[in-house]
Amino acid sequence: MKFFRLPLFLITFVAFASPSKSAESLDQTINYLIDYVVNSKATFIRNGTSHTPAEAADHIKAKYAHFKKDITTPEDFIRLSASKSILSGKPYLVRLPDGKEMHLDAWLTDALKQHRSHS
Questions:
Q1: Does residue 49 form part of some domain?
Q2: Residues whose CB falls within 8 Å of the CB of residue 62, separated by 6 or more in sequence, listed in order
Q3: What is the C-alpha to C-alpha distance for residues 117 and 37, in angstroms, rounded to an integer?
Q4: In terms of Cα–Cα distance, which of 49, 33, 59, 41 is closest to 93?
Q5: Is residue 6 part of a domain?
Q6: Sign of CA dihedral 94, 100, 103, 109
Q7: Does residue 10 lie within any of the structural domains?
Q8: Does residue 26 surpass a pLDDT of 50?
Q9: Which of 75-94 are b and which e, b meaning 16 or more Cβ less than 10 Å from the residue's Cβ?
Q10: In a domain, 19, yes or no
Q11: How many domains, the chain?
């Protein structure tokens, strides 16, 4: 019986190029961020108009569908789908239950960092 020998560099490449079983897919991470919006107790402000978490999530999902071919990272998703209005250029805002307002992209970036640190 003959054994086939793979060069060491090829074995190493395959081992490191294969995704980890614990690695989360892009879609899973984006779904986490959308769920984060839906389950928040925040008010979302788009072009000066307040929206519920469900309305904000629906809008972000629609923009994600529009930009999906350009999105390869969660950061791309936040930048293209949850940062500002395409029509007015105004940033999306989130008003937290304590009244503090911040840019939605910064809020979601913080949520992403927390999510990654717990994954």
A1: yes
A2: none
A3: 19
A4: 49
A5: no
A6: negative
A7: no
A8: yes
A9: eebbbbbbbbeeeeeeebbb
A10: no
A11: 1
